[in-house]
Amino acid sequence: MALTAQQITEILADQDLLISTPEFKGELKHLAYNSNDVEPETLLFIKGRFKAEYLADAIERGVKAIVAPTSFTHDTGLPTWVVDDVPAAMSVLSMAFYDYPQNKLALIGITGTKGKTSATYMAYEMLRVATDDKVALSSTLQVITGADPKFHYRAHLTTPESLDLFRWMAEAVANGMTHMVMEVSSQAYKMERVYGLRFNVGIFLNISPDHVGENEHPTFEDYLEHKMMLFDHSEQIILNADSDHFSELIEHAELAVPRDGIWLYGREDEDSPKADVYYDTVEADLQGSTFAVREAGQQAARLGIAGDYHLDMPGDFNQGNAVATMIATRLVGADTDAMREGLEVVKIPGRMQVLTTQNHGTIYVDYAHNYASIAALLNFVRTNETVEKLTIVVGAPGNKGVSRRTGIGQAVSEGADVVYLTSDDPQFEDPNAIADEIQAAITNDHVVINREMDRTLAITEAIKAAGPNDVVVLAAKGLDEYQKIGGVDTPYENDWAVAQRVVSELEA
After folding, report:
1. pLDDT by residue (tens digit) across 401-450?
2. How do residues 48-64 score in pLDDT, each as one tens digit?
3. Which of 26, 157, 188, 449 could form a disulfide with 193 if both were Cys (CB 3.0 to 4.6 A apart)?
């Protein structure tokens, strides 16, 4: 793999990104955006908070040329392409460097305030059956580019940086993958991690206030706008007819895609807007649910997915995610047998994991981290469990998603009896100050508030205090094995492991 100087210039000029071109005639055989990843003959992208002094290290490692914004000054003599948008330049050059791997994959992109990860794994499992394990995945939790476990990677962003994304796509193609399912965050569009990428199918699950803050979206309107950019970059769209802001969503979708390329799904309800595919609960328990799918109209009948399905995941809110992914996988070649098998086996690490104890009730571990997901989780527990006391252990990350904190407090206020406010990924903020913001939104005087910033200790105390008919919810961290503290990934046992250990010690 390589890019010549002429190719780089032509690609950047074609995208109207180029400001100036160096007098350089060579070729580049490696791409990087971090000086630590530089090797001989590297093209280095100067993006974000890249400091000029990092170039010294990059030069030692073998950087050959750079792509930089007009604001970046240096006196190294390195050939430099100056562009007006480095993230966009990195995306278009990365896809070219890796020979446009996205064109060799059937791509499904999934966005939504809640449910992206669950839906991504549902689609992945259905397509894994349909394609004989030739499907790649990019999620908040992991990246999978091949069936062999050595091609399973831990994820660091909901949607990877473009250079990493296209490298993983190329690896997937080399491994014989034919399909790929990926989470697409609003930040991916805002930070141009998916600049120039088109999806065969885009799924929009829902929208509610989240990710509004200093380092994310300045307003909800900005958040919504970037979420809807998936419509502009998808050949077909699947949209939840029951979502908040539906009128805005469908208006934007119809501007982006012809109506016969839009597929609406919704719960069977006379008050629901008209959908192409409806679903309704047949039966549900703590282990999973059976739901019925009905097609309405000629367009929907082309899908041929009507019938009853069993989902091996608790929570009726997961049924809508299942239906959305059923439509999407059908559009890229899956049949109903693959859907049924995929939904029977799907497991999402850290999502709705249940630990039953002898004397300390039931413990749920889930990545729920905002108002919508925590409120849905607590409501599910109330509806499906006989609960004497419902306790939640929760915090919020630092330096991002500041708007979540009020929402978390509101969800706790509405659904919990006891809360242990603790640390999440505080980064450079004081976890006590974060807890103050959550606590200020807990307006229900009946909620007992405890504070313990040592997360392991908070979980331990919550489980110890639980009785046989109580439920303890451990929210937001799931199977994360580190906490981001002061810019450092600090090893952490993970919520599920802590719960298992504490229960084992208490009930040995």
Report:
1. 788 899 999 999 999 999 999 999 999 999 999 999 999 999 999 999 99
2. 777 777 888 899 999 99
3. 188
Bridge partners, residue 203, by sequence: 110, 238
Q: What is the 3-state secondary structure (H, E, C) of 454-507?
A: CHHHHHHHHHHHCCCCCEEEEECCCCCCEEEECCEEEECCCHHHHHHHHHHHHC
- Provide the pLDDT for residue 503: 96
Place of tokens 């979980």: 459
Minimum mean pLDDT among 208-222, 454-468, 481-495: which range? 208-222
Q: In which residue are the tokens 């490692």 written?
A: 61
Cβ-count burial 289-324 (b if 16+ within 10 Å, e if not): bebebebbeebbeebebeeebebebbbbbbbbbbbb
Q: How many CA atoms lie within 13 A of 84 on its CB side?
A: 6
For residue 386, how many other CB atoms are within 10 A of its CB?
7
Amino acid 133 reads: D
Among residues 240, 222, 215, 9, which one has the least CA distance to residue 110?
Answer: 240
Cβ neighbours for 31, distance < 8 A, ≥ 6 positions apart = 42, 43, 45, 90, 93, 94, 97, 163
Residues 6+ apart with CB under 8 A from 72: 46, 50, 52
Q: Phi/psi of residue 389, each to 5°?
A: -145, 125
What's the pLDDT tens digit per position in 168-194?
Answer: 999 999 999 999 999 999 989 999 999
Q: Are 297 and 315 in contact (CB under 8 A)?
A: no
CA atoms within 13 Å, Cβ hemisphere of 343: 26
Q: Rounded distance, CA 28 to CA 44, Å?
A: 10
Spatial contact of 398 and 429, defined as CB atoms under 8 Å apart = yes
- 288 to 36, 128, 279, 347: CA distances (angstroms): 46, 21, 15, 11
Rounded to an integer, what distance in angstroms lies between the CA atom of residue 439 and that of residue 394? 11
Q: Which residues pair with 290 in a beta bridge?
A: 283, 310
Q: Residue 465 is which amino acid?
A: A
Tell me the pLDDT tens digit for each residue of 276-307: 999 999 988 767 889 999 999 888 999 999 99
Dihedral of the alpha carbons of 64, 157, 103, 11, in degrees to the nearest 10: -30
The amino acid occupying position 287 is Q
d(CA 505, CA 498): 11
**What's the token pair of residue 225?**
């706008």
Residues 207, 244 contacting (CB under 8 angstroms): yes
Distance, CA of 238 to CA of 250 (rounded, Å):
10
CB atoms inside a 10 Å sphere around CB 169: 29
Q: How far apart are CA 486 and CA 428, in angstroms?
A: 5
